[in-house]
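Thread: Modeling a multi-component assembly for a lab meeting

Hi all, long-time lurker, first post. My supervisor asked me to bring a structural picture of a complex we are working on to next week's group meeting, and I have zero experience with this. I have the sequence lines for every component (826 residues in total). Could someone generate the structure of the whole assembly? Inputs are pasted exactly as I received them:
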Amino acid sequence: MNAAILTIGQEILIGQIIDTNSAWIAQKLNEAGVNVQLITSIPDENSTIISVVNELLNKFNLVLVTGGLGPTSDDVTKLALCELFDCELTTHQPTLERIKNLFSSRGLPLTRLNEMQADVPDRCEVLDNPLGTAPGMWFKHGDSVLVSMPGVPFEMKSIMENHVIPRLLSQSTEIVIVHKTVHTFGLPESFLADKISEWESNLPKSISLAYLPSPNSIRLRLSSTGNNKELIHKVIYEQIEKLKAIIPDNIFGYDNDTMALVVANLLKNSNSTLALAESCTGGNISHLITSIPGSSAFFNGSVVAYSNKVKEEVLGVNAKLIEEHGAVSKQVVESMAVGVRKLMNSDYSIATSGIAGPTGGTQAKPVGTIWVAISSRNFTESKLFKFGNDRERNIIRSSISALNMLRLHLLSR
Amino acid sequence: MNAAILTIGQEILIGQIIDTNSAWIAQKLNEAGVNVQLITSIPDENSTIISVVNELLNKFNLVLVTGGLGPTSDDVTKLALCELFDCELTTHQPTLERIKNLFSSRGLPLTRLNEMQADVPDRCEVLDNPLGTAPGMWFKHGDSVLVSMPGVPFEMKSIMENHVIPRLLSQSTEIVIVHKTVHTFGLPESFLADKISEWESNLPKSISLAYLPSPNSIRLRLSSTGNNKELIHKVIYEQIEKLKAIIPDNIFGYDNDTMALVVANLLKNSNSTLALAESCTGGNISHLITSIPGSSAFFNGSVVAYSNKVKEEVLGVNAKLIEEHGAVSKQVVESMAVGVRKLMNSDYSIATSGIAGPTGGTQAKPVGTIWVAISSRNFTESKLFKFGNDRERNIIRSSISALNMLRLHLLSR
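Re: Modeling a multi-component assembly
Sure thing. I ran the full set together rather than chain by chain. Output:
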């Protein structure tokens, strides 16, 4: 089954919001064996919606549409679909009841705009949306299916998971697509490519390989299609085993793993606790860790020590060390790591101190100079990184490099 | 001038990465008076690239393409463009020299894959890329222009800012598009719509209005087109003044403002310092603040107090308070705020304590129960928020709500 994803909203075309819905939908469709061949975004214009939807329905078996179903006047998707499918709006009573209950339970008055959210084209099947006012709509059109959903991400996700994906799975053919992603860190793209070029050229013809670089990692994606899911998994697994032998330290995870999640699991499995002292990363490592559900089991906390006073008074860094070596130095970052580990009575700690930019650099320590330390009761180690000029990328790369240092240490014990 | 943006990469179609390039490009084009009518993503397939690019060149004056220019075998954009435009690859000597210098300055060996990055189709103009190995390429095709750029965001941005935008501005017509965005917080979408409905219906016909809801804010975008930029700005400005009179407390910023940036500016302007005690927000507020260049001028630091021990021992919260009222309570969050303000000797502080989820809720304090406090030398205030079940959204909404409390307090003095 071939699919297209269409997002509707002028805010996307002027670059005001990033379309995150399409990536999420694409991932879910792929997992369900649906091949996404096009993702496209158009403005909230009646005539554009009609012509593009029509064209997509002629080319694809499945067209998933998000956006333009809100209560305000700039939302025109429902009217455009009525015109395209030559049908009328009619009130969907169960949805109207749900909206009424939603508003009365919150003690809010019901406006006419809210009520109109229950009006749907009379030839669609309604897909219940318990999290919002606009329901999803399922249209059959010849051999193709069009689904219209609200653009609010959590409402769309609920409709996809509870209605669209189950319906697609019940109709699916035997062909499956398997993707397996290997996350690597520590080798630039062209070096990685050189190092694994022999492995790459010996890959079975049935497997395709893609390189996906980002500031967090370079990911290698192995993909294969067929009708025997177990067999495809086995063939991919064998190749990953060969890859592991070539770059054992660089592979840190698979598929939805993140560096923070991998470190979190290593800490949980060894019943160890973690504390952080962040200067240049400014709370980003804490945020990456605490975004993981259940992180309170191993994460005690952190000190974001932006000023030197906080480094001295909260973390106990000797003022002389800062005076002699500067806050961005091996001596200070190691003292920060030891200080926060003791302060928060933790088994492990990470500390960062560097110049994220855009200002604050000197000739000796230009923007992008970052020290990272890790510490445990009988071990403290630090490392100097030299990144570039971009503040945001420096924060991200410092955070991931710091977590990777702890990962390698935890694995080496 | 009408434009389309095309991103190439199988990783987008399987939802492995979110296409952030298109939003950035769309924003820059809009600012340059170019009307973006389509954003679309396709896989790295020779035949698809050729047919889609051809179709877009027939429909639009300007087609901007990113992706598929890397050194590895899955990158096929350059070859597809050669086939489409019927031309050959030739070595671009200045680019080859640059690549050689780049590698030797880093002490890295030059591989054949790296060298091949200097090969370009012989009928394009080369757009220099000082930040990477793949240069941009500018093709004229009848009345239309096609620009191919690498997909790595910071390389693409450099080529856009240094080459593409200046060239477009030098060719641009007199028609300008003006967008002005008003950021609001604290009113749900349908309530906001009701409250400003009279203002909305009295807007001049030349102005269009859009509602853009997100967990951070509901943004109102006013747009207008014409040939007198100053006049358009004036008309929009007058309407915003009227809007401010209706919802004065809810408007917190404009255009690229964020809640963190607005609070940062208020603190800087009053020469005040800030410290944070974060429990449920886990470092996210610190990260939002420290992502702002120059934040070290007013931000002393924070304590991410995930465990009760850290709340007691680092922030000085009385253990009895936690025992009697629980960590998620008015008493504890206020004590955290006072504690961190004193610890870091700051003028202001914010503290958060809540149940972000997915677990940890009770009947009395379900997931989504969040206490926020703000404190200054002679003032401490706290507020209870009741959000939903999603961990990520709870972290975001708590962070923005906390910053908004401080914003309103700073404005009221």
